[in-house]
Design brief:
The protein is α/β, with parallel strands linked by helices. The strands form nine sheets. It has an eight-stranded mixed sheet with strand order 14-13-10-8-9-16-17-29, with helices on both faces.
């Protein structure tokens, strides 16, 4: 069942894809005869200095390409792409200035609002002019504490049009988390809201904003968007600023390819969040490649991703403007008033690309939702899933419960590269449980413990050659030591990403979880996702989390389960869980202890945190509980008497 083909593109779809036309260009310009995605991928990683300039040209990047493709390619951490090119990020996202829709947005419980390309350009011009008047220019940091609304996109474009650096978190982050992030990067301007809506509640955050501003002495101006319509208690009002800048025109500061664009933050569950700085050109070029070649996005199509502004998928989503696509934004709970909320949006707005998390798809499935029976989705041709491993049963659900004729892309990469190492493509089949393959131009391999490339075996996801979307540096890491420790300590001059994966016989990728969270009973490494997949198939189990507990000079597997409301874990259910794991995995996967909890700890972007639970179980401090959505949950894992014997 693992290698079952679930979807195959027809010849018409293949021949009308951007990727097919790009491959024809490669063949034409370089005298080649590439016929498949595997052929194109192999060429792209063997000839990276030919591949990336062709992406620039094919995607029509606005800017000066320059004469040098790459410098210092022999030393991966120091490699620099297109060092003499000049461009502006916002200019590439604002190529269109017509009356067609640029952004369609919906806030929980409300109606959709539309912003045309011309209106978007006008508002960006006004805000940019105001920022310039505040002394904001190249290299200055502009921060957002905002929900996923059009104003967030406008503020980002205004800042980056000036060459300023953008950084953001979502308003559900607590004070300490925000101060921990922005305190390091020292923004001069903060954009925020009076509050936001979630799960049927209006949540006023003005007191929280006032408190964090008092702790951030770098902030010179605070701009407030009155989303809830409450009387403003601080800062300047968004609408008044725009009204004061009538007649402004779009202007773009030419910047270097490797100048800073975004500061993203690691989850910070093992210490203070790392401030990962992504460059202007590398981010743009990688996103254009992923959107146009891998996702086949065309002008006018509608692109949706369920995300907050504290997750890199927001940055990825917004770049779709550079391909002439319409952004579809949603802010609020995906299950309010019920699980149809996002599918109503997809139906109403004719969404082409629907992006979400594996956990959302799992939750829909568990709760019995089947949009295939309730929603007409003729425009939908691509579903992207990320954030955690999408199980083979999750693949089944998409094709049986959402839509049959759809490309399902289980994508993976993350904050570190603000993009994907593993992604789909429109000309290859989809196999059950597998990501379609590796991203073009990225020399991704699987290394075993000895640092040797393997296929058909589990190992570390690595990248063996430089690529433009590498971070340009970590903020405040002048020596580069933190950067080196994060990616290059495990294998010399090779990026080690920290995912435990397998490369299949036809070039697909199987994910088994984070490599630092793999279990090691009896010296055999086991991916946690293998356990979650089968345990969570049981009707009684909503979610689970597994860790390795040090025990008698070895490691034993401990499984915590969250059951459906009102259920209690008894020995009969424990036995069923053990049987389920033993039957579908191996005896080594079977937990030595199975315990019940009321909640599974997660980061604010929704990822479960095995490492934090492991530290708590071993009575070691968790360095940064601010990174967790609900740090109090960890108390359920501390001093459990069942783990003392």
């Amino acid at each position: 069942m693992q290698n079952l083909c679930l979807w195959q593109p027809d010849q018409d779809r293949i021949q009308h894809s951007n990727l097919y036309h790009f491959m024809a260009e490669v063949n034409h310009f370089h005298g080649l005869q590439l016929h498949s995605y595997a052929d194109l991928y192999q060429w792209s990683v063997e000839k990276t200095t030919r591949f990336w300039p062709l992406v620039w040209q094919h995607c029509g990047v606005k800017g000066e390409l320059g004469d040098i493709v790459a410098e210092n390619r022999q030393e991966m951490q120091r490699a620099r792409w297109f060092p003499d090119s000049r461009l502006n990020f916002a200019e590439n996202l604002l190529r269109r200035q017509d009356e067609s829709p640029a952004i369609v947005s919906r806030i929980e419980g409300g109606a959709s609002q539309t912003l045309s390309w011309a209106e978007l350009g006008d508002q960006v011009a006004r805000l940019s002019q105001w920022l310039r008047g505040q002394g904001i220019g190249p290299g200055d940091v502009v921060a957002a504490y905002l929900p996923n609304i059009p104003e967030t996109v406008i503020a980002m474009l205004a800042a980056t049009s000036l060459g300023a650096v953008w950084t953001s978190t979502s308003p559900d982050f607590g004070e300490a988390s925000v101060v921990e992030r922005f305190g390091q990067t020292r923004p001069k301007v903060l954009f925020t809201v009076d509050g936001y809506r979630y799960a049927g509640k209006a949540i006023d955050i003005q007191a929280k904003v006032a408190s964090l501003v008092s702790q951030l002495d770098s902030i010179e101006q605070t701009v407030v968007i009155p989303l809830l319509g409450n009387p403003l208690l601080l800062g300047q009002e968004w609408g008044q600023i725009l009204a004061s800048q009538e007649g402004a025109t779009l202007q773009f500061e030419a910047m270097g390819f490797n100048d800073p664009l975004y500061i993203l933050y690691s989850s910070g569950t093992t210490g203070k969040p790392k401030c990962i700085v992504h460059g202007i050109g590398g981010t743009l070029l990688q996103h254009l490649k992923e959107h146009q070649l891998h996702c086949d996005i065309k002008p006018g199509e509608r692109v949706f991703y369920f995300t907050t502004c504290g997750w890199m998928m927001w940055n990825w989503l917004v770049s779709a403007l550079a391909s002439g696509a319409t952004l579809v934004l949603y802010d609020g709970s995906p299950f309010y008033p019920d699980g149809n909320a996002l599918w109503d949006l997809a139906r109403d707005e004719q969404v082409t690309l629907f992006g979400t998390s594996a956990k959302y798809l799992d939750a829909l499935h568990k709760q019995g939702y089947a949009p295939i029976k309730t929603h007409e989705l003729p425009a939908l041709r691509l579903i992207c899933s990320t954030g955690s491993v999408l199980s083979p049963e999750g693949f089944d659900y998409v094709y049986q419960g959402i839509k049959q004729d759809v490309l399902l892309s289980s994508i993976a990469g993350g904050t570190d590269i603000c993009s994907c190492f593993v992604i789909g493509n429109p000309i290859s089949p989809v196999y059950r449980g597998e990501s379609q393959g590796r991203g073009l131009g990225l020399a991704v391999q699987v290394f075993n413990e000895a640092g040797q490339p393997v296929q058909g075996e589990k190992g570390e996801l690595v990248c063996t050659k430089p690529f433009p979307a590498q971070p340009i540096y970590f903020w405040g890491d002048e020596s580069g030591d933190k950067y080196h420790a994060a990616y290059f300590e495990r294998f010399h001059n090779v990026w080690c990403h920290g995912d435990w994966i397998e490369l299949t016989e036809h070039g697909g990728i199987l994910f088994y979880g984070r490599s630092d969270a793999t279990l090691n009973p009896g010296g055999v490494r086991i991916g946690t996702s293998e356990i979650y997949r089968y345990v969570e198939q049981l009707d009684e189990v909503e979610e689970s989390i597994a860790i390795g507990q040090q025990w008698q000079q070895d490691e034993r597997v401990v499984l915590f389960v969250k059951l459906k409301a009102g259920l209690k874990l008894d020995e009969a259910l424990r036995d069923r869980i053990r049987q389920q794991i033993s039957q579908h995995c191996t005896v080594r996967h079977v937990p030595a202890r199975i315990l019940q909890v009321d909640a599974i700890p997660r980061t604010k972007s929704g990822k479960i945190v095995e490492l934090a639970v492991r530290e708590v179980v071993h009575n070691r401090p968790v360095n940064n509980t601010h990174a967790l959505a609900d740090p109090e949950v960890l108390s359920q894992y501390r001093d459990r008497p069942e783990l003392a014997s």
